[in-house]
Design a protein that fits this description.
The protein is α+β, with helices and mostly antiparallel strands. Helices cover 27% and strands 17% of the residues.
Length: 165
């Protein structure tokens, strides 16, 4: 296996650097036309999900992971005006059809040209792949870390195979 260590510039190694700039920097250094980004703040990446993402890349120029919400989006309200999303309600929340997803940050893949042209990680025509992980993890706080550890341990007990660096 070839290992490349790329030392990024100081302006790309701080809290204000955009992820697109960082990915572009690496792609330029490696003369790459495509990228797969596994964000470090979303560490519970399941191997089968990465395989599905790579498979989707064969037919789509950009693929992004997403996750079903833990709560029904129809229950989101704006405090000053009430419900944001309206639609048919079922008798119980468990019966609702969940057509909504949110971009979870675990996987992004696509062509460098879209990033260079300022189209971002989800340009028009992006294929969104729903992860099998029941709850996406994006670790930004100590609470997030604790919840991710708990979920990790549960997934390990279920025999789930993770993507490891």
């Amino acid at each position: 296996m070839n290992l490349l260590v790329h030392n990024r510039a100081k302006q790309l190694a701080n809290d204000t650097a955009s992820m697109a700039e960082v990915v572009l920097d690496v792609c330029e250094a490696t003369n790459s036309n495509n990228y797969i980004l596994l964000q470090p703040t979303s560490p519970l990446r399941i191997k089968v999900d990465l395989e599905r993402l790579v498979s989707a890349l064969e037919k789509n120029p950009t693929v992004v992971s997403c996750t079903a919400p833990a709560e029904a989006p129809e229950d989101i309200i704006e405090l000053s005006s009430g419900p944001i999303i309206t639609g048919p309600k079922t008798e119980t929340r468990q019966e609702r059809v969940r057509e909504y997803r949110f971009v979870d940050g675990a996987f992004y893949a696509g062509c460098v040209t879209n990033l260079k042209n300022g189209l971002g990680f989800s340009p028009a025509g992006t294929k969104f792949v729903t992860l099998s992980n029941p709850i996406a993890n994006d670790i930004d706080t100590p609470f997030d870390w604790t919840m991710a550890e708990t979920q990790h341990d549960w997934l390990v007990s279920q025999g789930v195979e993770f993507v490891r660096p």
